[in-house]
TrEMBL record:
Pfam family, one: SLT
Keyword Hydrolase set for record: no
Superkingdom of origin: Bacteria
Every Transglycosylase SLT domain range: 34-131
Organism: Paraburkholderia pallida
Signal peptide: 1-29
Keyword presence, Lipoprotein: no
Alphabetically ordered keywords of this record: Signal
Record's protein name: Lytic transglycosylase
């Protein structure tokens, strides 16, 4: 089943998002702040969580590219993994476009929304952005919590 068909049942028009993000001058000219806000609003995910993920993944470096031990690569400030490249290419988003900060943020918001559809609006969903492995997922979620606490946006858990 194609990405557009799968997403349409959740009310997501991903193909439109992709073309808008790639062709709209606002996507290229928008500041990171605007992109986090717009992507979060569009997907219904908290833009502060997206910012924390960007900080955790790359310290916000839009040009970040990492080669993983398993042979995959992560691209952009939210480190979109190459496992998603073929799905994104079918929707007209080449992996090179992921170095565009706004495209990267919108794709990450879409990926996080997929996890939220599966797990709900939970820390488990946020952790699953990084890994489905329970140990890695839970550690990642704790790292995002810690970032939000350090920014004064979340109270430490007792």
């Amino acid at each position: 089943m194609s990405l557009a068909l799968r997403c349409s049942k959740y009310g997501i028009v991903f193909a439109w998002l992709a073309s808008a993000a790639l062709s709209c001058p606002v996507a290229h000219a928008a500041t990171g702040d605007e992109c986090f806000e717009k992507a979060g609003a569009y997907q219904g995910v908290n833009p502060l969580v997206l910012r924390a993920v960007a900080w955790r993944e790359s310290k916000g470096d839009a040009a970040a590219i990492n080669h993983n031990a398993n042979g995959s690569i992560d691209v952009g400030q939210l480190q979109i993994n190459s496992v998603h490249f073929s799905e994104l290419a079918r929707e007209g988003i080449p992996h090179r476009a992921l170095t565009d900060p706004c495209v990267n943020i919108f794709v990450a918001a879409w990926l996080l929304k997929q996890k939220m559809v599966r797990y709900g609006n939970t820390w488990r969903a946020i952790g699953a952005y990084h890994s489905e492995s329970p140990r890695e997922r839970d550690a990642y979620a704790r790292s995002i919590q810690a970032i939000l606490v350090s920014w004064g946006l979340l109270r430490p858990q007792q």
